[in-house]
């Protein structure tokens, strides 16, 4: 038997090296706090599915990450959140999109998985489902932060999203060169090799209303089976095309690569530079957190005492 | 080997008691769609264009569960979804929650070609459709009397009905309750009946795939299935094009369409071996079927369900339309 392991992320993207302290420190502190929460849950024997959910809830509640409160805004200045969760042991999964008032999208995704015969509910119906199950909802003003209003304004001014429809290859904006990017996610494995993954996001700044990214797409943003659990972040359209999270597991299954090799391959070869990062754990307690962007807010810990909290590449 | 190939499907998991005239109607539609695709391929139309035009035909015809003739939601409305993928650069487009766009597959194509995104849904997708000037109709256009009848039966049986295309009188009620195909440890049968799909490899070896559906009869509003999910219901790469149908949840969990290509890429299997492998090993207790073409001009259909409406043809003259094993 090997030990437990956990990894979490707060988004991969063009995080500037000169990120001011007042933007960096709160995020590092949050990563540490979430890591501690996750570690202590694993140590108490909580199942990885519960651990992944509780860590992502915590990241959703933190306004400095692009999920739940603090989600970036659509082109209409609204919030549309999405999330997914997957239990590696059973491969059961749940996903939600288009949420506007649900405080913790990842928990609604879990409810979809556990309380419906379906996997994925979206928009008005997902909101109605939330209410029918007494899930915590708040006015959308709860989720909208002044920083994100400013980011949207900036994005519109710079017209970062190329709405020029003659461009054949979709261009995706870098997120105004600041730190509210990507997605949040958590993967966990217990000593018995049970795996789980969860991911949650507000999408990206100035996105079209109704735009769905990789986060709720099983096999793109989230995947878990008996070998590994992965949560990806970055440019949603590239992660969808690259079926990123499924591919890490597929390389392990079909080519016999280790977790680290498989994850490095996908991030290095299957998606364009600057588009993607992921966190992953394997059934035998390996952890890896590769990214091909400037940085990725991340943290991990293993039972044998290793732990790490970082933003930029380690070397 | 080499040359173009095309396959179409109209759904997996079929009532063994389906009346002969319904079987015949289905075969005629599949034949007609194959022929449309064949004519286009002979005119050197590219794989992605052929996929779109064939699926448009399937959506427009009310027989199968896509576009007009879609299964109905619990409220008696139609909510459609579709996805399309071009293997050459793995470009893709998908839509969900479509209620007034006459051809969802074409909207998915527009998302791929004309928007900065890969997947649009509900009101955002409908707004995009209007801005793109696609053909818009009332939701009633998609609703057929047959399906109104089927919905009533489904509600009476209080289950998500496996859409048998049986006329809504006589045997249908009995078939629903002693349906031998209910499964999966859940209180309701969860087949996604008669999704449509098309996969094509053109003369230049380019693969493309597309899938379109109205989803499950009596589904919850806002429920999204496998058809619009890249990697689940639809996938295309430099190696192959795949479209799946059957139990949506099983297909999603299995990332079925992606896995066909993945075993070719990572295990070096050929198309037939890859399809056999995923059907055998990736579905666990789920039931599904798929059609696939390879960049070598091969075409394969595989399913573990009770039948699949399908047709396929290759440049060297092979053509087959079938329902059962």
UniProtKB/TrEMBL annotation, chain A:
GO terms for molecular function: asparaginase activity; beta-aspartyl-peptidase activity. Substrate binds at residues 211-214, 233-236. The active site is at residue 183. The keyword Protein biosynthesis does not apply. It comes from the Eukaryota. One of its GO terms (biological process) is proteolysis. The keyword Cytoplasm does not apply. CDD domains: Asparaginase_2. It holds the Pfam family Asparaginase_2. Keywords: Autocatalytic cleavage, Hydrolase, Protease. The record marks 182-183 as: Cleavage. InterPro entries: Peptidase_T2. It catalyses: Cleavage of a beta-linked Asp residue from the N-terminus of a polypeptide. Its EC number is 3.4.19.5. Heterotetramer of two alpha and two beta chains arranged as a dimer of alpha/beta heterodimers. This is beta-aspartyl-peptidase.
Automatic annotation (TrEMBL), chain B:
It catalyses: Cleavage of a beta-linked Asp residue from the N-terminus of a polypeptide. GO terms for biological process: proteolysis. The record marks 194-195 as: Cleavage. The keyword rRNA-binding does not apply. It is an enzyme of class 3 (hydrolase). One of its GO terms (molecular function) is beta-aspartyl-peptidase activity. Its EC number is 3.4.19.5. Coiled coil: none annotated. InterPro entries: Peptidase_T2 (IPR000246). The active site is at residue 195. It comes from the Eukaryota. Substrate binds at residues 223-226, 245-248. Keywords: Autocatalytic cleavage, Hydrolase, Protease. Heterotetramer of two alpha and two beta chains arranged as a dimer of alpha/beta heterodimers. This is beta-aspartyl-peptidase. It comes from Arabidopsis suecica (Swedish thale-cress). The lineage of its organism: Eukaryota, Viridiplantae, Streptophyta, Embryophyta, Tracheophyta.
